[in-house]
Design a protein that fits this description.
132 residues; globular; mainly alpha
């Protein structure tokens, strides 16, 4: 039996938590888009409290695992940009293309539901690190 080459053995056998954060964000984004599709066509399941709770929990996971110190400012600015986008009258697009404005409003709302808990976590961690 041949010996393992020590140069090819991984240095760390621990879990890569940042990778879990990336996957959590992708799963949350897919759930948010699927819920937006359901909202655009007036499906009752799209406003299910359990799905909203899942988005909030995934947002917390993303906030704890995925946003590094270098990404803090950009992430918080993007969260504020989502809040500003929410104030736009996207439903006016429905006059040109039916259901598109409703879909876009639902996507922004669900994205805010996903990102807001992460933004709170990142902001609190930023304040904590600044006060240390």
């Amino acid at each position: 039996m041949a010996k393992a080459d020590p140069k090819k053995v991984p240095v760390s056998l621990g879990l890569n938590w940042a990778q879990y954060g990336v996957w959590a964000f992708l799963v949350g984004a897919v759930i948010a888009i699927v819920m937006a599709i359901g909202s655009a066509v007036n499906q009752a399941w799209a406003t299910n409290a359990l799905l909203v709770f899942v988005l909030v929990v995934i947002g917390l996971v993303v906030g704890f695992l995925n946003v590094t110190k270098e990404e803090t400012h950009g992430f918080l600015i993007a969260a504020v940009a989502l809040l500003v986008a929410k104030t736009a009258n996207l439903s006016a697009i429905n006059t040109l293309i039916p259901l598109v404005g409703t879909f876009l409003e639902a996507v922004v709302s669900n994205a805010i539901t996903l990102v807001a808990p992460a933004a709170v976590v990142v902001a609190l961690m930023s304040v904590y690190k600044a006060l240390r």
